[in-house]
Structure formats: structure tokens, C-alpha cells
Design brief:
2 domains, single chain, 9 helices, Chromosomal Replication Initiator Protein Dnaa, Chain: A, 434 Repressor (Amino-terminal Domain), 79% helix, 214 residues, mainly alpha
């Protein structure tokens, strides 16, 4: 009887130990998955901040898009290496986007200054002075500065309409606000009612595209 009692007691102890071990394992797994959830949240936020799609990041990281959504739904646990690849893919794409933006800005700046110089030359102005003129220091009483301002407006108009430079970037290369660029575009568009100005802008557009325009 004593032996039977001990066996029952040992069995209960063993079951209790197994249950405790199982709960500890489940708790550890839950904590581990929380870490993955946090990492996936960071990946999603980084994609949103950079305007990247999860699909393109998955492709770069060699992760199936369907698998990503299974992870997000809690249907599978991701491998740490897969999440690291996705993080590296985001960093790489962000770096490439930054380089592309810098390159686009450099091209836009060059195009703007070339057009500004050309327009100043056509207007019979001192090209060096027009290029050096500060758009923030307007002097309405100065005919030379007023003429330089018109050249700037036309150069901005051309890089936006002919080269598809975004307004924000155009504002940056010209050293003025986005609102000022918008105002300049409206003014130049209205000024095209003058056949001489319309012809000048058509000629400049033709030079941009390397041939006749129209």
C-alpha cells in the first residue's frame, strides 16, 4: 500500500512538473514572439516612413509576401535572419533613394542655372550678376533686379513644365519658397498671352529638348 501511495504521489509530482515546464515553455515562446512582433512593427513603420511597399521589401529580402502576412497574423513565427534581411533591404533602399534624390537635385540645379544664364543672355543682362543675384533681396525700384527676377521666374517655369522638376525641389534650387514658385508659374503662364514671351519660352523649351518645340 505504501508503495502504491508513493507511486501516486510521484505521478502527481511528475504531472505537476510537466505542467509547470509546459507553462514556462509557452511563456517563453510568447515572450519570444513579442520580440518578433516588435521587429515587424518597426519594419512596417520604416516602410511607411520611406513610402516603400512591404511587397518590394520582401522581394529585395528574398521573403515571400504571403509568408510576411502569415507572420503578421500570428500564423507562423518568422526566422530572425528573415527579419534582418528585411531590415537591411529597407536600409539599402533608403540609401539608394537618398542618392537618387541628391542626383536629381544636382541635375535640377544645373538645368536651372543653365536656363537662367541663357535667359539672362537673351535679355541682354549681365549673366554673372543675374546668377549671383539673391532672390530674397528684391528691389522693386531696380530695373536690373526686376529683369533678373523675370529670368528666374521663366527658368523655374521651364524646369517645372519641361523637365517635370517637383515644386519643392524647384524651390530649393532657386532659394525661394514653394508658394513663391507656384506664384511664379501662374504669372509666367499668364504672361504667355504675349506672343513674344510665348515664342521665347517655346524656343527655350526647344533647346531643352534638343530641337524644335511645338
Amino acid at each position: 500500500m505504501r508503495g502504491s501511495g508513493r507511486r501516486r504521489e510521484n505521478s502527481k509530482t511528475l504531472q505537476k512538473a510537466k505542467k509547470t515546464c509546459l507553462l514556462s515553455t509557452e511563456s517563453a515562446q510568447g515572450a519570444s514572439f513579442d520580440v518578433f512582433v516588435h521587429k515587424m512593427d518597426k519594419i512596417s513603420s520604416a516602410c511607411a516612413d520611406q513610402n516603400f511597399s512591404i511587397a518590394e521589401i520582401c522581394v529585395l529580402a528574398n521573403v515571400r509576401v504571403r509568408q510576411w502576412y502569415r507572420w503578421r497574423a500570428g500564423q507562423a513565427i518568422p526566422r530572425p535572419s528573415s527579419l534582418r534581411r528585411m531590415e537591411r533591404a529597407i536600409a539599402q533602399k533608403a540609401h539608394e533613394a537618398k542618392r537618387a534624390a541628391l542626383y536629381d537635385r544636382a541635375l535640377s540645379t544645373t538645368a536651372y542655372r543653365m536656363l537662367l544664364a541663357r535667359l539672362a543672355d537673351v535679355a541682354g543682362l549681365n549673366v554673372a550678376l543675374v546668377l549671383a543675384d539673391n532672390p530674397q533681396a528684391q528691389d522693386k525700384q531696380s530695373p536690373a533686379r526686376a529683369a533678373a527676377s523675370r529670368c528666374r521666374q521663366r527658368a523655374l517655369y521651364l524646369i517645372v513644365t519641361e523637365l517635370n522638376v517637383p515644386l519643392v525641389m524647384a524651390a530649393g534650387v532657386a532659394g525661394i519658397s514653394k508658394q513663391a514658385v507656384s506664384k511664379s508659374l501662374r504669372q509666367i503662364e499668364e504672361s504667355r498671352d504675349d506672343p513674344a514671351i510665348d515664342h521665347l519660352l517655346d524656343e527655350m523649351a526647344g533647346e531643352i529638348h534638343g530641337g524644335a518645340h511645338g
